[in-house]
Amino acid sequence: MDIKIALAGNPNSGKTTLFNDLTGSRQYVGNWPGVTVEKKEGRLKGHDDVIIQDLPGIYSLSPYTLEEVVSRTYLVNEKPDAIINIVDGTNIERNLYLTTQLMELNIPMVIALNMIDLVRKNGDRVDTKALSEKLGVEVVELSALKGEGSKDVAEKAIAAAKSGNLGNRPNILSGEAGEAVKAIEEILKGKVDDKFLTWNAIKLFERDSKAVKAMKLDAVTRAEVESLIEKCEKALDDDSESIVTNLRYNEITGITAETVKKGRAKGELSISDKIDRIVTNRVLGLPIFAVIMFLIYAIAMGGWSISIGTAATDFTNDVIFGEWVPGLFDSILGALSITEGSVLYGLIQDGIVAGVGAVLGFVPQMLVLFLLLSILEDIGYMSRVAFVMDRIFRQFGLSGKSFIPCLVATGCGVPGVMASRTIENERDRRMTVMTTTFMPCGAKLPIIGLIAGAIFGGSPLVAASAYFIGIGSIILSGIILKKFKAFAGQPAPFVMELPAYHIPSLTGVLRATWERGWSFIKRAGSVIVISSIIIWFLSSFGTVNGQFGMVDNLFEDENLVTEEYVADLADRMDVPVEDVTPMDASLLAGVGNTVAPVFKPLGFGNWKPTVATVTGLVAKEEVVGTFGVLYNFDGHAEQAVDEETGELLFDENGEPVMAELSEEGDEIWDRVAKDFTPMSALAFMVFNLLCAPCFAAIGAIKREMNNAKWTWAAIGYMTVWAYVLAFITYNVGGVITGEHGFGLGAIVGIALIAGIIYLLVRKGYQADDSVQSLTSVNANAA
Amino acid sequence: MMPLSMAGTGDMVTIQMIKGTDEVRQHLAELGFIAGEEISIVNQVSGNLIIQVKDSRIALDRSMANRIYI
């Protein structure tokens, strides 16, 4: 039989660090409460029969947030063989509150007194032995970050699990309350699991609705219990829940008074407090945040000399995947006498190398971004940002807590969506899940990079506008959605623990960066390779004038490619006759062309961008991967473009001037540029940034919503929003910039803007459930 | 008695009473906010507070701080 050991403790107390240390696993650790949003299992190193279970951090076993529900359900229903209760040594009193509740579960337990190095550094002294005796539970000193004591903790926990010894635990409930609970225990005997008799009796006494429901007691028993509770409440002049809470804290204060000596006087400011005074300052808070974010994106994606990310990505794109890799494959293929024009050559060079290369080129930039975001998380700045942003987000009906998911989503949408679990209010949580992926995630950077590079000469304004569009969409959606009945009501009050700042650990940050980057590279090696092959196949084969084969080869047959045929093809594919390429006859062109009318009103109704948009569902970076394959054809002369004005060049006779084929590199950009106007390119970017996220993120949304209807509502909302904004960008934006004249599109666009404004300012549904809502308390209290 | 939201940066105060629904009071209690507890205000930004309670820093918005009386 396997031994199951659960790790339980307050948020940010170091559970995940200990879990990683014990299991050799590499779960992500960040310095903000709520990093572990789902339970994770691992086997203890060196003990294959011991399963360690990492639970989300909780303050108590009364379920207030979703994480608390997850942890409590596990502990009560799965009944682990032992619990390792991690107690933050720098904050013993508060942490022991949960301990007193865990002890009532009657499960063998070990207390790991974590951050013992910090305790010593602060000049605090903890008498571990005395603490152990008073609690009746073994207390082991631990520094999870340094790996000191973790083996000891695990061994003691295994011993406790094997012996089943509960120790001599103190009886916290004394006096009237103690008697009432005893009496309830008598009533419950035989009705619930014997092991959980005390736990159930206390929950019943506290009137914990979830636990009461789970016990399924008959009306007579409940009435009997209720009269006991009421009697006790009358005697003590307080409600039962508060009575228990006070008894717990009394016991804890008694225990710590004798065992813990603080080096710092109460109320004295720690370094973290002093830093907080500055970074959460009324005036400086926002500018500091803005400067930090600006620096991060400047370093990762800007166009300046500090922009390491951009420089590395340019090098990778232009040199590694522009010259070295294709050159290398050329010589390998040459040595194997696979010649250009053969199917295999096309598959490898035009399919895999072009597709995967287009995606991998952005890895350096992404790694820099991930690294900087990891540092920010590790320091402990995230929860401060939530506090600073709360004031602003509240104006739009969102809580500051919604900002953490958004910030995490700038790295990747999947953890971003999952980070929404710390939001207590169900409506706010749903709304955050629906809007978080509007943020441009790491995988959307290549799209931004492509559009900025190909159409806008690498202007940093494009990237800036992408973030602006993302945040703007979240805020506007917040206002709009709040007016609907399903989301109406004030956001839940903001309560959040701010962890102590610490210097980021080099290994931790590098590990987090590498993991996020690696999953990206892995995707490039798996899904991206496969979809690149599929895209290449579908784009290379097709029917030319009734004959099926590789379109490139078929096009060389002059009997097939008649003038009539080309004219017909140009007409079907909506391209000028002189621009027809063999690919336009491919299977993919046919499929894309069928769907393309959907995007016609957005200005990119050509089959190539259509296909790229659809493949973006696989992974957003695949949009660029697809472009890599589809625009990687060669051998056809192109019309030259005036470098200054960007206009096509013609000679004196009105004949187009053909460009000389440049070496690899920016060539793809030139071809992409031909299919777009500035506004249609922007519309393409807007749509791809905002529409349904990749399958991985859709999966995360489905898990968080836990409801098919809400999942579809979320995806539907995102796609409609994306379509509307892209439509406005192309049609109204085009008129403003003079790209095309005023017409039906502009009229519809203006109507859509009016519609959005109406949704923003209309008087929304007024929640009359305020009697039950948390916020009503405000009115009562004031 | 006055609501905690009226306290200023640097003040050290004792909680007298907490109002609100059971759920909210319970959550505040879990975080260390109970009657009789001495707390200090690390920072105050238009009613939103960062409070040092039981050796941890907790951020509260104004609506929450209004329920705690000092």
Task: Give structural attributes.
heterodimer, A: 782 residues, Rossmann fold, Helix Hairpins, 5 domains, 6-stranded mixed β-sheet, 13 strands, B: 70 residues, alpha+beta, SH3 type barrels, 2 helices, 19% helix
Question: What does this protein structure show overall?
Answer:
The complex is a heterodimer of chains A (782) and B (70). Chain A is an alpha/beta fold and 782 residues long. Chain A contains 35 helices and 13 strands. In chain A, the strands form 4 sheets. Chain A has a 6-stranded mixed β-sheet, sandwiched between helices. The two termini of chain A are 57 Å apart. With 70 residues, chain B is of the alpha+beta class. Chain B is built from 2 helices and 6 strands, in the order ββαβββαβ. Chain B has helices spanning 22-30, 62-65; strands spanning 12-14, 17-18, 38-45, 48-53, 56-60, 68-69. In chain B, strands 1-3-4-5 form a 4-stranded antiparallel β-sheet. A two-stranded antiparallel ribbon of chain B has the order 2-6. In chain B, a hairpin with a 2-residue loop joins strand 3 and strand 4 (48-53). Chain B is globular and about 30 Å long.
Architecture blueprint of SSEs:
The complex is a heterodimer of chains A (782) and B (70).
Chain A: E1 3-9, H1 15-23, E2 40-43, E3 50-54, H2 66-78, E4 82-88, H3 92-103, E5 109-114, H4 116-121, E6 125-126, H5 128-135, E7 138-141, H6 150-163, H7 175-188, H8 197-206, H9 209-215, H10 219-236, H11 240-259, E8 260-261, H12 271-279, H13 285-301, H14 308-335, H15 343-360, H16 363-379, H17 382-395, H18 403-409, H19 413-418, H20 426-436, H21 445-455, H22 460-482, E9 495-498, H23 506-525, H24 527-540, E10 541-544, E11 547-550, H25 551-554, H26 563-573, H27 587-595, H28 607-615, H29 622-630, E12 638-639, E13 658-659, H30 667-675, H31 678-690, H32 695-705, H33 708-737, H34 744-761, H35 776-781
Parallel strand pairs in A: 1-3, 1-4, 4-5, 5-7
Antiparallel strand pairs in A: 2-3, 6-8, 10-11, 12-13
Chain B: E1 12-14, E2 17-18, H1 22-30, E3 38-45, E4 48-53, E5 56-60, H2 62-65, E6 68-69
Antiparallel strand pairs in B: 1-3, 2-6, 3-4, 4-5
